[in-house]
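User: Hi! I have a protein structure encoded as tokens and I'd like to know what sequence might fold into it. I'm fairly new to this, so please keep things simple.
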């Protein structure tokens, strides 16, 4: 297993931990719908990231394509959730169009994963 795969697994762990922490905060804050959404995005995509790494590492999907999908999931979740957290805690955006950009990266990551599953492996 390469160092990059280990980094992605560590990021999935951090995404999961942040998702649980945001869920806890959202449960105790009467006006925290943004945090609940950020939590959901992080938790779901942490699991998806682990699955993508496992599929690529085992050779079920091509590693390079799996890596692109994994990076899309990480960056997308960071931008989408980061923007929601900034709005909740700082009252301002991360940067203009951060959440939509993150959302598009997440969608792209899922589509690349679908392509990776359909793409024939090299012999």
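Assistant: Happy to help. Inverse folding works backwards from shape to sequence: for each of the 123 positions I chose a residue that suits the local structure. Here it is:
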């Amino acid at each position: 297993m390469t160092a990059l795969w280990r980094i992605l697994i560590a990021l999935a762990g951090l995404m999961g931990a942040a998702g649980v922490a945001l869920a806890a905060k959202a449960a105790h804050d009467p006006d925290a719908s943004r945090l609940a959404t950020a939590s959901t995005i992080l938790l779901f995509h942490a699991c998806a990231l682990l699955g993508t790494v496992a599929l690529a590492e085992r050779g079920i999907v091509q590693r390079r394509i799996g890596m692109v999908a994994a990076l899309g999931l990480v960056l997308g979740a960071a931008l989408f959730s980061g923007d929601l957290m900034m709005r909740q805690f700082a009252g301002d955006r991360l940067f203009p169009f951060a959440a939509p950009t993150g959302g598009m990266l997440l969608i792209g990551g899922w589509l690349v994963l679908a392509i990776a599953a359909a793409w024939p492996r090299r012999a």
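A useful reference point when you look it over: The radius of gyration is 15 Å. Feel free to ask if any position seems puzzling.
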